[in-house]
Amino acid sequence: MLFPVLGMASMASAHTLFTTLFINGENQGDGTCVRLPEDPQTATYPIYPLQGEEMACGYDGEEAVPYTCSSPSGARLTFEFRTWPDYENPGSIDDGHKGPCSVYMKKMDDMDSDSASGPGWFKVWEDGFRDDEWCVDRLVASGGMLSIDLPAGLEPGYYLVRPELLALHQAYRGDPQFYAGCAQIFVTDGPDGGGPGADETVSIPGYVSAQDPGLSFNLYEGDATRYEMPGPAVYGSGAGARAAAAGGGGVALKQKEGAVPGDCLVKNANWCARPVPEYDDEDSCWDAADDCWAQSKACWSTSPVTGSRNCGVWADYCAETNDRCESGGRERLAFGGKEWQAPLPAAIPKPW
To answer: Which residues constitute the domain of residue 306?
Structure first.
């Protein structure tokens, strides 16, 4: 048979990136708590090689970000994928990139020092082909979003959560294309010692190989109803799940590191503006303005591929502070800006 022309599939506009986390329907902000690639030219590219450390959390995903988002046990997490990470244009992924989706998690003792790649990963959700559609079809119809409910029985603490899309349009040529990224979350409550057993964890990389049926499936000639999902079984079938179900008493933990500051005025990904010093005369006003612009510079210099719009919101405030100082300002100007968020591409979906 003749296969579709795939020459344009290598364009960045055909690819995708996980950019935004929602917890119980609340937008955490573009890039907030999300490990993102640093190179905007390749940020949306599929991840290679299969056995590289990049398979864990994507390109540059070994480096932790400053913020870790708090989540109650059993919360609904929603992951948004975009073709244009900064929402310059709408779109999630080319609808020809059909294939399955999965979500994995890994318990972390220390976000900064623990490695994302390696053992300890467990699958908490998967969706392949059913009802004449692939998971990626459902994701596209949902504006690039997919949702899961955190499994019951997880021990409270720090976790990486890793949504994964697998595009099969080139798999018959030996080129399965993975798109994955990681969010940092802190589960606030749950059973002491709960979680997966050793039989339910895998190493990433190492959890799939190019020879797996799910990675070499012919999207155009194969029987999709017989598609074999790659990777391990979903958490809930092994010793760890039985231990969690048996119970051990619930515990609640307070997040000690990585929380967004309570006095954060506006946030851009993993940067946050803090109140400038109080002032009561022109000289101290200019000191406050200097502080404002120093924070602004830090925002622009750390802006990730999801954009810098909220750096502009803060810079507007700095300019207003300058105006206040020029008029002999004797009282700190209240911050009146509003944090920008991309419009929702669709209603937040329920888990499929």
So the answer is: 266-326
